[in-house]
């Protein structure tokens, strides 16, 4: 059994090395469900680490903060270009739609100093096959993000992403075509051209892809077969171009 598990984990690790043909996405897939954070409150509503929100189809999602978690975070509405009222996140020309409600991972200490409270982990009551959402650092300029997928305590795979030079919202996601993901962690690893807080960033509506299941173990083997088939196809393609 240990040998089988090692093979599965190796396939997953290799499959996470790039986007083309693999499980990680650089643009949105077809969402069958989503978690819209507007239900947590209007612009500027404080939320705590451990807060839960239900997806449209009732999949309870728990939000866990990673740094200074006791400070919590804030909901933040994206401003309309012509009306910057009742909002706290500047108008975006792409990625974030005006009126979207974001989770802003920033809290205030007792002296009203702002501190980032990321990275963030989203945990699902029922496993999902895929996830995706847009992320943006608070600091101006380019930033880098890492998305890590988990099945229980086991890392399924991890992928690094880089924004454009202007630091527009960046899409991160994965679609495994098998309900194996129990949680994901999103971390900004670098940001801005000057001083910045990598734990201070925002996340838009969480998109969920594929089927959901409350019994993930059989799906683990289905996932391994999918990834191994992808690896074999990629190997054949590479040989054909030598």
Summarize the structure.
Helix content is 16%, strand content 40%.
Commentary on this structure:
This protein is of the alpha+beta class and about 240 residues long. The chain has one domain (about 25-215): Jelly Rolls (Sandwich). The protein is about 15% helix and about 40% strand. The protein contains two helices and 16 strands. The protein has helices at about 1-15, 215-240, and strands at about 25, 35, 45, 50-55, 60-65, 75, 100-105, 105-110, 115, 120-135, 145-150, 155-160, 170-175, 180-190, 200-205, 205-215. The strands form two sheets. Strands 1, 2, 3, 4, 5, 6, 7, 10, 11, 12, 13, 14, 15 and 16 form a 14-stranded antiparallel beta sheet that branches. A hairpin with a 5-residue loop joins β8 (about 105-110) and β9. α1 (about 1-15) crosses α2. It is globular and about 45 Å long.
How is the biggest beta sheet arranged?
14 strands, antiparallel
- Broad structural category: alpha+beta
The number of domains is 1
Strand segment tally: 16
Q: Which term fits the overall shape?
A: globular
Topology:
Blueprint: H1 2-15, E1 24-25, E2 33-35, E3 46-47, E4 51-54, E5 60-65, E6 73-77, E7 101-104, E8 106-108, E9 114-116, E10 120-137, E11 143-151, E12 154-162, E13 170-175, E14 181-191, E15 201-203, E16 206-213, H2 217-240
Helix pairs in contact: 1-2
